[in-house]
Amino acid sequence: MTNSATTIHPTLDSVRTVDGITIAELTGELDLASATALREELLRLLRPGSSRLVLDLSRVSFSDASGLAVLIGTGRRARLLGGFLRLAAVSPQVDRVLHLTGLHRHLPVFPTVWAATTTPGAQHGRAA
Q1: Is residue 59 part of a domain?
Q2: Judging by beta carbons within 10 Å of its beta carbon (0-12, 13-18, 19+), is residue 109 exposed, middle or buried?
Q3: Is-contact 88 113, C-beta < 8 A?
Q4: Looking at the DSSP assignment, which residues form a beta bridge with residue 25?
Q5: CA nearest 53: which of 4, 3, 89, 15?
Q6: For 30, which of 18, 63, 115, 119 could close a Cys bridge (C-beta 3.0–4.6 Å)?
Q7: 75 lies in a domain?
Q8: What are the helix and strand counts (H, E) for the chain?
Q9: Is 4 left (phi over 0), alpha (psi -120 to 50) or beta?
Q10: Do 21 and 53 meet the contact criterion of CB atoms below 8 Å apart?
Q11: Does some domain include residue 2?
Q12: Which residues of the chain have pLDDT under 70?
């Protein structure tokens, strides 16, 4: 993580809907400084009838425990609404954290956005 003067807070670069699935592209760092705002933004994307969410994490350069907690909470909310959260094109930095913490077994990870949006019913994109 970089110091607070140069921290790049995550932004939702684009949000679009394809075949009833919301696809959000994140950039920046998922950390304590940004967790609350990011949580609010992601939860706003989830509502009854629109609870299938794919996060493109290809341009996320860092995640700490707070960022992971946001992803876990977002996934939980999506499931409560009858949908899902799928992570796509995860950057090597974030993928490493997911594996070190074992969360890759609980958060569905797909190699591409296309795979995340076209895989029917599967919760996990790859075996642990």
Answers
A1: yes
A2: buried
A3: yes
A4: 14, 56
A5: 15
A6: 63
A7: yes
A8: 4, 5
A9: alpha
A10: yes
A11: no
A12: 1-9, 122-128
**CA nearest to 110, candidates 53, 69, 68, 37:** 53
Residue span of the structural domain in which 30 resides: 11-118
The enclosing domain of 28 has a CATH number of: 3.30.750.24
Cα–Cα separations (whole angstroms), residue 69 to 19, 31, 42, 103? 28, 10, 12, 10
Best CA proximity match to 87, nearest among 120, 54, 38: 54
pLDDT at residue 120 in the model: 86
**pLDDT (tens digit per residue) in 45-63:** 999 999 999 999 999 999 9
Helix (H, G, I), strand (E, B) or coil at 35: helix
Nearest to 119 by CA among 32, 42, 19: 19
Count the domains in the chain.
1
Grouping H, G, I as helix, E, B as strand and the rest as coil, residue 30 is: strand
Q: What pLDDT, on the 0 to 100 scale, is given for residue 90?
A: 98
